[in-house]
Amino acid sequence: MKKILSLIVSLAVVIGLFSGCGAKKDDKTIKVGASSTPHAEILESVKEDLAAKGYTLEVVIYDDYVLPNKALADGTLDANYFQHKPYLDSFNAQNGTNLASAAAIHYEPFGIYSNDVTDLKDLKPGATIVIPADDSNETRALLLLAQENIIKLPEGASAAKGVTTLDIVDNGGYNIQTVQAETVPAQLKNSDPGSIAVINGNYAIGAGLKISDALATENANGDAAQTYANIVAVRSGEESSEKTKALIDALKTDKVKSFIDEKYAGAVLPIF
C-alpha cells in the first residue's frame, strides 16, 4: 500500500513538473486575434522583435468584429487588435464583458467609395448609400456623410453621443442601407450603378480599394483620429501585464511606423 501511495505521489510530482513547464511555455506565447488587413500584417512585422525578447507571437485571424472579443473575454486570446474604443465600449455594454484598451496603435480613415460615381456632386436623388450597421461604425459613417453635406444630422451630433439612421434630420432623398461592416464592399459591388458606400479602412484595403480612390475621407484634423484609433484590447486588469507590455513595446516603434507608412500609403496612419 505504501509503495502504491509512493508511486501515486511520484506520478503527481512528475505531472506537476510537466504542467509547470507547459505553463511556463504558455507564459511566453502571446496569442492575439486580428483582422487580416492591416492588423495581422502589422503584427507579423513584429514577430522577430518579440522572439528576440523570448516571446512567441501567435496571430489568429478573424473576419468579423464579434468573435475576437468573445475569444478574448473567454480567455482563448491574450489580446486582440482590430477595433476602436467606441466599438469596444459598445460591445462591453451589450455583452456584459470587461475588456479594456491597452494602447492606441493606428488610425484608418473612413472613406466614401462608389461603383460608378466619380464625384459626390454627381450623386443622383434616390441613390443607394451602404453603411455599416453596428453602433459606433454607423455613427462614424453618418458623421462622414454629414461632413460631405449628403445628409443632415441634429446639431451637436458627435461620436461621443452616437447617432443612427433614425436621427437623420434630412436624408437628401437617398436610400441609406445598413449592413454588417464586413459585407459593405460586396454590397457596394452588387448595388445599382451610381451607388456609394462608407467603408471601414481595413475592409476597404481587403477589397483592394485604395484611400486615393475614395470620393471623401474623414477630416484628419478632427477628433476622428483619436476617437477611432485602432487599439490593442485585453481583459481589464491585464493592461500592464508582462505579455501586454511586450506586445505594445514591439508595436510602438519607429520600425512599425515606417512599415505602416510604406505599406499602406495613407490608408493606415500610425498614431503613437
Notable features of this structure?
40% helix; single chain; D-Maltodextrin-Binding Protein, domain 2; 11 helices; 2 domains; alpha/beta; 272 residues
Describe the protein in words:
This protein is of the alpha/beta class and 272 residues long. It has two domains: 2-108 and 228-270, D-Maltodextrin-Binding Protein, domain 2 (3-Layer(aba) Sandwich); 111-219, Periplasmic binding protein-like II (D-Maltodextrin-Binding Protein, domain 2). 40% of the residues lie in helices and 21% in strands. The chain is built from eleven helices and eleven strands. The protein has helices at 2-27, 36-44, 47-52, 67-73, 85-95, 135-147, 184-190, 201-206, 224-227, 242-251, 254-264; strands at residues 29-35, 56-62, 79-84, 99-107, 111-114, 128-132, 175-179, 196-199, 216-217, 230-235, 269-270. A six-stranded mixed beta sheet has the order 2-1-3-10-4-11, sandwiched between helices. A five-stranded mixed beta sheet has the order 7-6-8-5-9, sandwiched between helices. Helix 6 links the parallel strand 6 (128-132) and strand 7 (175-179). Mean pLDDT is 89; it is low at 1-25.
Beta fraction: 15-25%
Structural class determined from secondary elements: alpha/beta
SSE string, helix = H, strand = E?
HEHHEHEHEEEHEHEHEHEHHE
As for the number of domains, it is 2
How far is the first residue's CA from the last residue's CA?
65 Å
Helix content: 40-55%
| CATH homologous superfamily grouping of the largest domain | Periplasmic binding protein-like II
The CATH class assignment of the largest domain is Alpha Beta
The major pleated sheet works out as: 6 strands, mixed
CATH architecture of the largest domain, by name, is 3-Layer(aba) Sandwich
Rounded Rg? 22 Å
Low-confidence stretches: 1-25
CATH topology label of the largest domain: D-Maltodextrin-Binding Protein, domain 2
Total strands: the figure is 11
Query: How do the strands line up in the largest sheet?
Result: 2-1-3-10-4-11
Global mean pLDDT:
89
